[in-house]
Amino acid sequence: MDKLYATEDREGGLRAPDVNVPGFMREDLNVLSDEEWAQRKGEFALDEWVKTLSFH
Q: Which of 4, 15, 34, 42 could potentially form a cystine with 48 if both were Cys, beta carbons 3.0 to 4.6 Å apart?
């Protein structure tokens, strides 16, 4: 990340206070199951989208 953006008042984010909030597991944040992701990941990749475009 560029040093100009890695500050709290920019897009680098803010420090979180330690208030004993448990973190999230990757599986809790996924919308698709691992199996569904494996089947559909092409729908979410730019290079696959470009293949479906028709340029006239």
A: 42
**How far apart (Å, rounded) are the C-alpha atoms in residues 13 and 8?**
5
Residue for token digits 């199996």? 35
10: Cβ–Cβ under 8 A, 6 or more apart, which residues?
A: 4
Asked whether residue 31 is assigned to any structural domain, the reply reads yes
Most confident option among 1-5, 42-46, 52-56? 42-46
Evaluate if pTM is beyond 0.85.
no
> What pLDDT is attached to residue 17?
74
Q: Does residue 8 belong to any structural domain of this protein?
A: no
pLDDT value, residue 40: 93
Cα(31)–Cα(44) distance, integer angstroms: 12
